[in-house]
Design brief:
single chain, 288 residues, alpha/beta, 2 domains, six-stranded parallel β-sheet, three-stranded parallel β-sheet
Length: 288
């Protein structure tokens, strides 16, 4: 048995077309271009490439994009002042602050200053709390939302299924677990202190890897016929690999996301959807 690859690139391409159509309708109705503002503190080379991807994605579907660069030596007051200015800028519907920040700028500064209704990366405690409660108007982190969208687009049933999430970060593991719970899966979260990890993962109908260790999930840890969602992004030499041993696990699972090309391409798509959703909430009447 060889697992079917869940092609994030193909799904993302389809969704970009859908988003472009929605954006055109929004602009026609409101005479406003949904736009994101990206705040980047210099010093992290990897962030530069990611920000370029965001710009390309947004511009490609007719959405607005602005980049606000701060020097690595900027002070906390500079960052807060910039965010607060964007909060009240009517041309900006969504704001993300590119992570990681320099050590002298804790993430708590961002979450304290950021307006929750413009928090399109879903990091504000108010959005996290609404996500946990299942409130209708939260903005969920883009990466786990992309994983959920892949499950939806591949018609993977979740109701009553046993889901195991390996990893408990605030940006992927925990929100993914809550999103699965909202779809009536029975969810277990595993972490570095989980005893006999393999025994737990072998019970999963839906296995999610989001722990940041290359190929830590091997074939002997996977239930035959499982669906495996790999959020891992690890560089091994010059190659990007996931948290799952894709080749080995593909002989056991029914579905698996490849790395690269699986969950990764979905993140920017969901960021665009969050920004469009935020824009719709800034107007009195949503599109029909």
């Amino acid at each position: 048995m060889t697992a079917q690859l869940m092609d994030g690139r193909a799904i993302a391409k389809t969704m970009r077309g859908e988003i472009a159509s929605s954006v055109a309708g929004f602009v026609k109705q409101y005479d406003h271009i949904p736009a994101i503002a990206v705040v980047q503190v210099e010093g992290d080379p990897a962030s530069v490439a990611y920000v370029r991807q965001i710009e390309k994605s947004f511009v490609g579907v007719g959405m607005g994009f602005t980049l606000h660069l701060l020097p690595e030596t900027c002070q906390a007051a500079d960052l807060v002042e910039l965010i607060q200015g964007l909060n009240v800028d009517s041309a900006v519907d969504g704001i993300i602050v590119q992570m990681p920040l320099p050590r002298h700028l804790p993430q708590s500064l961002v979450t304290a200053a950021l307006l929750p209704t413009k928090d399109v990366d879903g990091i504000h405690p108010l959005n996290a709390g609404k996500l946990l409660q299942g409130a209708a108007d939260y903005l969920a982190p883009a990466t786990p939302s992309g994983g959920m969208e892949l499950l939806k687009r591949y018609n993977i049933p979740l109701k009553g299924k046993r889901a195991v999430v390996v990893g408990r970060s605030n940006v992927v593991g925990r929100p993914m677990a809550v999103l699965l719970l909202h779809q009536n899966a029975t969810v277990t979260i595993c972490h570095s202190h989980t005893a006999d990890l393999a025994a737990v993962t072998r019970e999963a109908d839906i296995l999610v890897a989001a722990i940041g260790k290359p190929a830590i999930i091997t074939a002997d840890m996977v239930k035959p016929g499982a669906v495996v969602i790999d959020f891992g992004v690890n560089l091994v030499g010059e190659h990007m690999v996931g948290d799952v041993d894709t080749m080995g696990v593909s002989e056991v699972a029914d579905f698996i996301t490849p790395v690269p090309g699986g969950t990764g391409p979905m993140t920017n798509v969901m960021l665009m959807l969050n920004t469009l959703s935020a824009a719709e909430r800034h107007y009195p009447h949503k599109l029909a």
